[in-house]
Amino acid sequence: MQFTGSYVALITPFLADGKVDERAFQDLVAWQIAEGTDGLVPCGTTGESTTMSHDEHRRVIELCIEAARGKAVVMAGTGSNSTTEAIELTLHAQKAGADAALVVVPYYNRPTQEGLYQHYKTIHDASGLPIVIYNIPGRTGVDMSIDTMKRLAELPRIAGVKDATADLARPLRTRLAIGPDFAQFSGEDITALAFLVQGGHGCISVVSNVAPKLCAEMQHAWAAGEVKTAMAISERLAPLADALFAETSPTPVKYAAELLGKSSATLRSPLLPATQAVRARVEAALRHAGVLN
């Protein structure tokens, strides 16, 4: 399977009592597919997976696969700072019918580069899904080196990386070290187009939760060689990309989704609702992008 294009780092809608809003979640998945999104990523950072129980985590992945109905790639978030737990989540996603697993670099533990290699190799050897590494040092406290990634890429089912370093030298250096078939996704919306220029294959996007059509059109325009079109869309989306990270994600994007009627803005503690200043900024950016009248 080739992993390219516009993927969405799905939010998880919650009801007022804090439970997962299953209907809203599946409606969101259906809308994403209808708007042209190529891939769905449930239970990542944006999905608040760290405050989900294991039962909720598994259920959300199952709901995503059920709603997708094979019309888009499902890359399930199955990472953990425990190797054993990551294996269990990955095996569940495989059994449920996911197409791939997004596995975050272990957080808090701060393993060595050899520890990172052994963590991913163990998950790889225990499961049958393609695995995409999620490198987000700002949250995990550890940055996987390109050398470690190159070692991992020699394993048959280590398929790529979601790069949330915001370092635009990384995709080019990674491509030169590993080759063009190693899928590289930007994990920073503001760099989505520039990441493609540097050798990337797509974006796993927060912005796509509220502007899926534009995100998909930008990726598809670039793939078709329509550079001016891709640049114009990137400029429309740039203020929104900035606004959705004005406070800890997914706080702003859940407020944006509420404005569009796609989800409540309900978050799980210790996250708090968006401040008034951020709400105003998000609303203005949605209007600038043309997705809120």
Describe this entry's structure for a reader.
With 293 residues, this protein is of the alpha/beta class. The protein has a single domain, classed as Aldolase class I (TIM Barrel, Alpha-Beta Barrel), CATH 3.20.20. The chain is 46% helix and 13% strand. It is built from 12 helices and 8 strands. It has helices at 22-34, 54-68, 83-96, 113-126, 137-140, 146-153, 170-178, 192-197, 212-223, 227-243, 251-259, 276-289; strands at residues 5-9, 39-41, 73-77, 100-104, 131-135, 158-163, 183-186, 202-205. An 8-stranded parallel barrel has the order 1-2-3-4-5-6-7-8, surrounded by 6 helices. Helix 7 links the parallel strand 6 (158-163) and strand 7. The radius of gyration is 18 Å and the shape is globular. The model has no long low-confidence stretch (mean pLDDT 97).
Please name the CATH topology.
Answer: TIM Barrel
Approximately what portion of the residues adopt beta-strand conformation? Answer: 5-15%
What's the alpha carbon Rg, rounded to whole Å? 18 Å
Instruction: Estimate the global geometry from the Cα principal axes.
Output: globular
The fourth-level CATH homologous superfamily is Aldolase class I
Q: Please state the second-level CATH architecture.
A: Alpha-Beta Barrel
Number of domains: 1
Q: What is the CATH class?
A: Alpha Beta
The DSSP helix count reads 12
Structural class: alpha/beta
The strands making up the biggest β-sheet line up spatially as 1-2-3-4-5-6-7-8
The count of β-strands is: 8
SSE arrangement, N to C: EHEHEHEHEHHEHEHEHHHH
Q: Round the mean pLDDT to the nearest integer and report it.
A: 97
Taking the sheet with the most strands, its summary is: 8 strands, parallel, barrel
Helix content: 40-55%
Low-confidence stretches: none
- Report how far the terminal alpha carbons are from each other: 38 Å
